[in-house]
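Journal club side-thread
Mid-discussion, someone asked how the predicted structure for our own chain would compare to the paper's figures. Pasting it here so we can look after the session.
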Amino acid sequence: MAEVAAMAQDGGVLMIENAWLEQPPPAPDRDALENEGGVRRRRARLTRSVLV
C-alpha cells in the first residue's frame, strides 16, 4: 500500500513539474460581462434613434 502511495505522489510531482495538470475553468469576469452588455444596449438605443 505504501508503495502505491509513493508512486502516486511521484506521478503527481511529475505532472506538476511538467505543467500537465489541468487548471479548473476560471470564473467569468462579471464586471466585463456587465459592461459588454451595457455597450450593446447603448448601441441599440443609438441605432433606433438614428433610424427614427
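Post-session note: The chain has a mean pLDDT of 76.
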